[in-house]
Amino acid sequence: MAEANTLGQTKMPLVGLGTWKIDKPVVADVVQQAIKAGYRHFDCACDYGNESEVGDGLQKAISSGDVSREDLWITSKLWNTYHAPEHVRPALERTLADLKQDYLDLYLIHFPIATKFVPFEDRYPPEWFFDPSVTEPKLEPVDVPIRETWEAMEELHRSGLVKNIGICNFGCSLIRDLLSYASIRPSFLQIELHPRLTQEKLLRYCRQESIEVTSFSPLGAESYYSIGMAKEDESTLANSVIGKIAAAHGKTSAQVHLRWGIQRGTSVVPKTSQPQRLVENLDVFDFELTDDEMNQISCLNQHRRFNDPGDFCEGAFNTFFPIYE
């Protein structure tokens, strides 16, 4: 199934390595192991706080001849504090320096959230608070229209610093508005997608508008246990429906999750730092789920979003900040 290893008419590999929450001390080694295992797609972000270490791993793999830069697909994301047009290119340049790259294959607006600028020399990555030292730190939103941010993203594309531009965590209405003025249309949307959050209408809309979709958190709840944003009983990895499907194909539940995402027409970026799981997560192209199996998995949908600023910002950042409602 080699022809199924890239998304649409692009060269983005369907399975990438998500680097969110991979610890700094190990992530360079994980990146090198991933490349040796066959990964060519790496999903990064300023806010993950480990781009410099990811860059170390990429640079070592390239310099050792394990891979060429042209064979890699590297994605990163513009953080909330850098939405003002004058901050967009400096933010990208910092990411490029950290990743030790001359260009990105894809640069995304991380959230449809603009917050007050934090100078690089004051704190990087700036995270969510404007000033974490005050008694009750909060998010400090600023009035920067998405149009202005997008126009600055378009300039990055025209400059050749990024091959594709796109968006994260946007819904249909925001995308529709963006398309009304975009000179360069978004190539990709990255959103939370898993069997508890299937987002059927958003996927259909993106297909209609020829926007490719990448699924983050494709295995569901697991990434959110340690930060109190999911409970263990919300996992679908141990779900009996998926377990039976996995047994029928001689695969793991995780592989079934990833195969389901791929057959829905999305790329997937699972995170792992375990060598066995790196190999396992790539091994999803030698089987196919039936229509009935696909439907059984989709019927597990509960519209359960784990990564929701409308929930976590109030508890973690003292600010009520819904974006999806």
Description:
With 325 residues, this protein is α/β, with parallel strands linked by helices. It has a single domain, classed as Alpha-Beta Barrel (TIM Barrel), CATH 3.20.20.100. 37% of the residues lie in helices and 10% in strands. The chain has eleven helices and eight strands. It has helices at residues 24-37, 51-63, 85-99, 146-159, 172-181, 200-208, 240-249, 253-263, 275-282, 291-298, 309-317, and strands spanning 17-18, 41-43, 73-78, 106-109, 165-168, 188-192, 212-216, 267-268. It has an eight-stranded parallel beta sheet with strand order 1-2-3-4-5-6-7-8. Strand 3 (73-78), helix 3 and strand 4 form a beta-alpha-beta unit. Helix 1 (24-37) packs across helix 9 and helix 3 crosses helix 4 (146-159). The longest helix has 15 residues, at 85-99. The protein is globular. The mean pLDDT is 96.
